[in-house]
Specification:
The chain has 7 helices and 5 strands; from the N terminus they run E-H-E-H-E-H-H-E-H-E-H-H. With 188 residues, it is of the alpha/beta class. The chain has one domain: Rossmann fold. The protein has a 5-stranded parallel β-sheet with strand order 3-2-1-4-5, sandwiched between helices. The longest helix has 19 residues. The N and C termini lie far apart (53 Å).
Length: 188
């Protein structure tokens, strides 16, 4: 089988790529970038993925442009459900690229993360696959969470600290700084 794998970042690609290859699946990556903020973070993730793709002999299609405005228009006033919109946009772009490239199926490294809404990703992938006319390949990669982390550390890989969007960046850092600023003097 020839599969196009949406790759959100290098660390999350390690385990799924290894598993898929062990199963005899021919895998190519697709890096979607419109949701990653700020642009410098997007570039860090892309650079790490480029280095990993060379190391792992893994071909990747890197999305062109940087439509942050389009991403924001899709989620504004729906911030609580932003992940659903983001999953849809990333999986749809991957499915369209897979169909154009005559792949047999598409999937996502989002299925590796224990922090993502796994059932929602599966539902969205299946719905997108049906609408585009290409199969969504589902596999739960979460069992390899620690394996991927350990391997990415061994490879001295850039490891981001939040999912990617401006909202996840705020959730990651704002609460940390907010709690520090409320600490009594000398307790931070």
């Amino acid at each position: 089988m020839k599969l196009l794998l949406h790759t959100c970042c290098a660390p999350c690609t390690i385990y799924p790529l290894n598993v898929l290859r062990e199963e005899g699946i021919s895998v190519m990556g697709f890096f979607y970038r419109h949701n990653i903020h700020p642009y410098t973070e997007c570039l860090k993730r892309q650079e790490a993925l480029e280095h990993y793709s060379d190391y792992a002999e893994f071909k990747i299609i890197f999305q062109k442009d940087y439509d942050l405005e389009g991403f924001l228009r899709n989620v504004v006033f729906r911030e609580a459900e932003r992940c659903v919109s983001c999953y849809y946009e990333r999986l749809k772009a991957t499915a369209l690229a897979a169909k154009k490239g005559k792949f047999d199926a598409f999937s996502s490294t989002l299925l590796y993360s224990k922090f993502q809404k796994h059932d929602r990703i599966k539902q969205t992938g299946e719905a997108v696959g049906k609408s585009v006319g290409i199969r969504f390949y589902y596999q739960d990669f979460r069992e390899g969470w620690k394996n991927g982390i350990e391997e990415s550390k061994k490879l001295n890989m850039y490891r981001q600290q939040y999912c990617g969007c401006i909202y996840s960046e705020k959730e990651r850092y704002f609460s940390s700084y907010e709690s520090l600023s409320k600490s009594p003097p000398g307790k931070a």
